[in-house]
Write a structure and sequence with these properties.
With about 400 residues, this protein is an all-alpha fold. Among the domains are: about 110 residues, no CATH class; about 55 residues, no CATH class; about 50 residues. It is built from 16 helices and no strands. It is globular. It starts with a helix and ends in an 11-residue tail after the last helix. The model has no long low-confidence stretch (mean pLDDT about 80).
Length: about 400
């Protein structure tokens, strides 16, 4: 197993270097639709960034050699680098230097449909996280559905690609014996099947979380956190992909956001700073809400002040300066209010404990009787810490 793991890691690193070199050679060649991440910088650099998948798989397998999640990440990393090499090899041999590489058109054709197959590895990784096995044997049907759906997608796209990418000269050894409509239906069924399998795998994580406690519950929180950030990044990338000026930014956000899933999985399985996840989630919620509120407030103030002051300032930057100062003045009060709101909604026990301590402090300021103070202190400790027993000793 160790030799196989080292061979996979070495092969993947070599493919990443080859993909990066070919991407650099293709830097001035426009990529066909669906064969680019949105910018040439991403197309060149992301094969190296995708080695995060391999690093995560290697770290997990080194600690737990037979852990299925680690092997799935190794497989995902290898398949991603094979895809990047095929794309850049085919692009160089068909468009950058036509005929410059042997079988370039066939390899380019392969890259347009093999992406559907490794997606099964992602579903399996979700299905067996964090223990390395599903909740029960019946859940393996989800993995089989994902595999069959991926095969259906791949086969349909293999026949369909020359019909869809008509602006790129591609060689298909399979020919085109089927109509485009029939292939679209098969591809759609495969997409639907894989989507349902992915949702079922996510549902298995929810079931695990409801049943879990202690360490496993914290592990699932890490992956939920990484997946939530990755989903938000994917949504941003999808929205901005159709805007030419924002496509590079959106593509980068989506691509690197997706890498948070394996990183969070590695942190969870290796149990690195496992119990810090509650702090991370809280700060993300607080600072994310604070940033969104400040940005919205700033733009609203700019628009309002510009409309009010335009007759007096004649186009000067007074409105911008005033909005900036007003927004800065709102940082502290907004932060305090948002944090109280987050604690009240998501961390109710801590919020109640803080309120109990505040009430105790206010009562303590006007109390001088030791017996009353002792009773109040015992009540405050019981309400905040919830111990099984409270005792108070006073030195006479």
């Amino acid at each position: 197993m160790r030799v196989l793991r080292i061979a996979l890691v070495a092969l993947t690193i070599g493919l990443a270097l080859v993909a990066t070199a070919l991407g650099w050679l293709n830097r001035d060649t426009p990529a066909p639709l669906g064969q680019s991440l949105g910018s040439k910088a991403l197309d060149i650099g992301f094969p190296i960034a995708a080695l995060v998948l391999v690093a995560v798989g290697e770290l997990i397998c080194r600690r737990h050699p037979r852990h299925l999640v680690g092997w799935m990440f190794l497989l995902l990393g290898l398949s991603a680098e094979v895809l990047y090499v095929d794309q850049n090899y085919g692009l160089y041999g068909t468009l950058t230097v036509p005929g410059g590489l042997p079988a370039a058109r066939t390899i380019f054709w392969i890259s347009t449909w093999t992406w559907a197959l490794p997606t099964t590895a992602l579903v399996v990784a979700l299905l067996v996280f964090p223990s390395g096995r599903p909740i029960s044997r019946r859940w393996w049907i989800v993995a089989w559905i994902s595999l069959i759906a991926g095969l259906a997608q791949g086969i349909a796209d293999a026949y369909r690609t020359p019909l869809v990418l008509t602006d790129v000269p591609l060689d298909s050894p399979l020919g085109t014996p089927f109509s485009t409509d029939a292939l679209d239906v098969v591809s759609g069924i495969g997409t639907l099947g894989w989507s349902l399998a992915a949702l079922a795998a996510c549902a298995s994580l929810v079931v695990r979380f409801r049943r879990a406690s202690g360490v496993e519950r914290q592990q699932l929180k890490w992956v939920a956190y990484g997946s939530a950030i990755a989903t938000a990044a994917l949504i941003v990338g999808t929205i901005t992909y159709t805007v030419p000026d924002l496509a590079p930014i959106g593509g980068g956000v989506a691509a690197f956001g997706a890498l948070l899933i394996p990183i969070s999985a590695a942190l969870a399985i290796l149990r690195y700073r496992l119990y810090d996840i509650d702090v991370v989630i809280e700060r993300t919620l607080v600072y994310g809400a604070l940033t969104a509120t400040l940005v919205a407030t700033y733009w609203i103030l700019v628009l309002l002040l510009q409309s009010v002051l335009r007759p007096l300032t004649a186009g000067s930057e007074v409105a911008v300066a005033g909005s900036t100062l007003a927004t800065l003045a709102l940082v502290q009060p907004l932060y305090a209010r948002i944090r109280r709101g987050v604690d009240r909604r998501f961390y109710r026990s801590r919020y109640d404990a803080a309120r109990t301590l505040d009430a105790f402090t206010s009562r303590l300021a006007g109390e001088v009787d030791l017996d009353t103070v002792g009773a109040e202190l015992a009540d405050a400790v019981g309400a905040t810490m919830r111990p099984a027993h409270v005792s108070l000793w006073l030195r006479r």
